[in-house]
Amino acid sequence: MLNNINWATYIFVAALTILVYYVVVILLYYRPEIQQLFQGKNAAPELFSFKNTEQQIADSDPELYPVVHLLMGELRHIIENKAQSSVSKEALIFEIHNRLSSHPILSTTAFQPAINLFLKEECIRQCDINLDEEDLGELWK
Fold this sequence. Notes:
There is one protein chain. With 141 residues, this protein is an all-alpha fold. The chain folds into two domains: 2-39; 51-139, no CATH class. It is built from seven helices and no strands. Helix 4 packs parallel to helix 6. The protein is elongated, with a radius of gyration of 24 Å. The model is unreliable at 43-50 (pLDDT under 50).
């Protein structure tokens, strides 16, 4: 009976099996998102408005661009160094606060939300430290 199977049948059965497998996996792992999609709700709410921030930054003082660029490089360097030495969240916040305090003008510009987002992403990516809104507020005081 096995001698009667040709390549076309084999490929068809294999493709069908793979298709069924992936449909089941998608339904299991993405069930809430699929339900929201069919109910007409947004699957992923927008937590941070990039369009508004980009517009605000575009309207900001162009002379601050180099300052912000250098500051972000310094902040990345601080986070990288602290990640290698496995410091506490408080020590990391203290170091970042010291660096940000040397640029108080940025706390009143549209660059602040962008810097905050950068800090949150870098801290999670490199140190597994999650900075919440309270922590970010402390950084700018």
